Amino acid sequence: MEIIVSYIESLIRMCGLSGSAIIWVRHTVMIALVVLLAWGAYQLCRRILIPVVEKITRRTATQWDDILFNRPVLQAACGIVPALVVWQLLPIVFYQFPVVQEALNRLTAIYATIATVNLIVAIINSLKRSQNGNGTNLRQYMVSFCGLLQVVVIFIAVIIVISIIIGRSPITLLAGLGATSAILMLVFKDTIEGLVAGIRLTSADMLHVGDWITVPTTNADGNVIEMNLTTVKVQNFDNTIVTVSPITLVNGSFQNWKGMQDAGGRRVTRNILFDIRSIKFTDEGQEETNMSRYRQDLEDYLKNNPAINNQMTFMVRQKEATASGLPIELYFFLRNKEWVNYEHTLAGIMEYAYALAGKYGLKVYQHFPEQ
After folding, report:
1. How far apart are CA 168 and CA 264, in angstroms?
2. In what order do the strands lie in the sheet with 220-227?
3. Would you give the end-to-end CA distance of the chain in angstroms?
4. Taking 50 as the threshold, does the pLDDT of residue 164 lie above it?
5. Is the pTM of this model over 0.85?
6. Domain spans, the chain
7. Which of 82, 185, 209, 278 has the fewest C-beta atoms under 10 angstroms from its C-beta?
8. What is the architecture, at CATH level 2, of domain 168-256?
9. 228-235 contacts at long range (C-beta below 8 A, 24 or more positions apart)
10. How many angstroms separate the CA atoms of 163 and 184, rounded?
11. CA distances (Å), 84 to each of 21, 37, 38, 117, 277, in order?
12. 8 A C-beta contact, residue 357 and residue 281
């Protein structure tokens, strides 16, 4: 580089300049040369190095190189190259101006720090996308770990940038943060609690992407479409999206329908209220009532209904009488758990149960308000 400096000075003198003008023109030319070299190194990486690396990774059978050397990661890595070029050339360009050199060194170091963080975040995002299949434990752990890792990396980068600006060691600055930890805990209280709650959700296997959940304290009633350490997104069945804090789910309560979805059927518990005065003995002379005949007939119907899973509990039972009549509860599990089919099948069964009551002379309780 010294040869280039001497050559530039010779060209300037050949142009008829002398004295202090040589210094200023030389610095201007050198700055332009440094900018040109930094830009050229960046373009070289983007237009030549990235295509070559992508071509190599496509030919390999392993998957880890596709994760670590994909296009977003390589583009982020290219952003560091100009900082390296400028960092090496600054002492040569501004050796006569130490104050300017120091200021530019700090700016370059800040840029290099930000570019490095951008590269690390790109790698972390690639690791997030590397796990296929929603709802798996491995994916949830990976997303949680990557989210926490991003927070740590950004926090360290902020400390390094501040240390560069004030000209102190990052270790010294980190040691000084111990005295202000109480203030930081107060300021970032919600964020820290959200991070802890998000880790608890995933580590305890309480929730997965794709689960159908109901949160009583909110209007969330639908499928989980996204989870991270600070938010849980739920798409309701009307296609609205509700964002719920993990701390709300951990400290409160929510209903996860995953067990029902994985089981052999979806439970049904329905009550039918009968007028007690309509319960009578049958005409056969035996001590048998029309209610017992009705219950037996209804159980036979449920047993032979292909829509009902008979391998799971099913029964027609009598409950304690109330002022509104005698409750008969139908308890069974429908095989088809999909919402629309479930409601249609259930409606057909209940309509049959209501209609069957008339066959045995039973009257379903119905309140008629006074006119």
Report:
1. 64
2. 241-244, 232-236, 220-227, 212-215, 255-256
3. 104
4. yes
5. no
6. 1-167, 168-256, 263-360
7. 185
8. Roll (2.30)
9. 228/143, 228/144, 228/147, 228/198, 229/144, 229/147, 229/148, 229/151, 229/194, 229/195, 229/198, 229/199, 230/147, 230/191, 230/194, 230/195, 230/198, 231/194, 232/201, 232/207
10. 18
11. 30, 11, 8, 15, 93
12. no
Q: Is the dihedral of CA 25, 27, 28, 29 positive or negative?
A: positive
Using an 8 Å Cβ cutoff, are 230 and 198 in contact?
A: yes
Say whether pLDDT at 135 is over 60.
no
For residue 330, give the nearest of 311, 350, 347 by alpha carbon. Answer: 350
Are 122 and 137 in contact by the 8 Å Cβ rule? The answer is: no
pLDDT digits (tens, 9 = 90+) for 189-238: 666 777 777 777 766 777 888 888 999 888 888 888 887 767 888 999 88
Burial status of residue 229 (CB atoms within 10 A of its CB: 0-12, 13-18, 19 or more):
buried
pLDDT tens, position by position, 238-276: 889 998 888 888 888 888 877 777 777 888 999 999 999
Positive or negative, the CA dihedral 150, 151, 154, 160 is negative
pLDDT above 90 covers a percentage of the chain that reads: 20
d(CA 348, CA 330): 13
What whole-number distance in Å separates Cα of residue 206 and Cα of residue 227?
12
Can you name the CATH fold of 263-360?
Alpha-Beta Plaits (3.30.70)
